């Protein structure tokens, strides 16, 4: 109900100023209220920095194999040790962050660009269009996520881009359903009626008035689905059906670590922790954002 | 409610039809001629006439819509085609594999219920206590830990380090319960972890909701012992949404079985999926995907129906 209150504040004299001042202190306020979400932001920021500056942060090359230093334990020159090909594990975990974050981020963008317009049209148009789009969404949701990604990658061919596309198509229905349910209630509201009375076209009402009111829930869903996409990518790469070696991915590294579990069990530690931290912090951030932006949404995503 | 039930039933075949169409498009989009994959030989080694004859035989020379309708007709007869890899009808191979996946899946769900419901209930009743904190943290971890990594960690501890359990192998529960326990312990724990976390979370929030309702206050006011209030008045109402969640999690179980069965070399549907994909056995891939989605749709339908029947408070617009 809090967000509801804030939206009506804007309409009252002085309400806008109050809203601005409340916004200005929000990050700090949020960090204090949601310690876990703040922790998540720190972890994610670190991962993004590591992904961007990976070549600067480590002197090694992720593909640089050296048969003389196979399976070395962690040391000062190789803090996470070396793998079965004598490659530096820390370097590969760092470069793996690039793949995971890129795949997760772009998959979410794909999902937003497919799912949001579908949900918007579905909720706004109603009737047969709505029924048809929703059955389509049901059909896609019937495929277990991993299986859909497997089948799509098989059809499109194995490449990072196709993987992003496949994961995006898999989570797009989440956005379609979410936006549709919001549009259904938004389109009955007075400000939409006012826009219509003043002669706004359907397109203008949809994109100018209804869509902006769904942004906060789209942002919440984005963080949560990015976690799902990263986990699915890691699973596919672990199965050897996602991003192909020698590209360093966390899932792929765990695949290799699994084969060497008797010789060097520590190999599976760091890539696993990386996947875990990425998913955990995206989940925590999503929960925190949901509490902050849209408490009504609590049980929907 | 009758209108809702009728509509829900009517949706089922429509969605199923869309699923088959979607799957047909995906399978036809796979690059390369299925005939080559079927022969399992390099393309150059065929003579053109034999190839054309084979295409005609399989109906691959027909326009795509005709092929789709033919395929649907086959499906309606229960004919899923034959496997390139196993040289036998797809449905026979599927039937062979179902018991393994069913055993792993059901045990995992059982474990999730045994852990998730008591923990979630205690956390809700003792809200904001250290126990609640612990349950919340464990649930958070359970959702974020990748199940294949957890499986590797289990193998490391119980196989490599302690040498207590075999790393691979499958025994049916009804054949040898002791061996079955030894082979099932790790896969079921790995698959059950995410599920337990989800069940814990939902039980906690559902019990919290019910605890604040009037009838619970009345039960307390009339002097009923605390334990009875929780078991008889709260849990009975709180568990309905939790059952729904377990139904919805079927997709997670099936997707998880693909990974877990590969790691522990269990001869179930999940491992079959990977074998079929790696062996380019398209009819088998198609069969497995169809079986999985059909089961998900069916369980979703049953869950929705039971919910509508058991909880008359919900109005369906």
Describe the model.
- The complex is a heterodimer of chains A (301) and B (317).
- In chain A, α7 crosses α8 (160-186) and α8 (160-186) packs antiparallel against α11 (215-238).
- In chain A, 72% of the residues lie in helices and 0% in strands.
- Chain A starts with a helix and ends in an 8-residue tail after the last helix.
- The model of chain A is unreliable at 1-22 and 297-301 (pLDDT under 50).
- Chain A has helices at residues 2-9, 15-24, 26-33, 35-57, 89-125, 127-142, 145-156, 160-186, 190-197, 202-210, 215-238, 250-259, 269-293.
- With 301 residues, chain A is an all-alpha fold.
- The longest helix of chain A has 37 residues, at 89-125.
- Chain A has a single domain (34-63, 89-300), classed as MetI-like (MetI-like fold, Orthogonal Bundle), CATH 1.10.3720.
- Chain A contains 13 helices and no strands.
- With 317 residues, chain B is mainly alpha-helical.
- In chain B, 77% of the residues lie in helices and 0% in strands.
- Chain B contains 13 helices and no strands.
- Chains A and B meet through α6, α7, α11, α12 and α13 of A and α1, α6, α7, α11 and α12 of B.
Largest two-chain interface: A-B, 41 and 46 residues
CATH homologous superfamily identity of chain A: MetI-like
Report the order of strands and helices of chain B.
Answer: HHHHHHHHHHHHH
State mean pLDDT of chain A (0 to 100 scale).
Answer: 83
CATH class of chain A: Mainly Alpha
Name the shape of chain B in a single word.
flat
The assigned CATH architecture of chain A is: Orthogonal Bundle
Range of helix content of chain A: over 70%
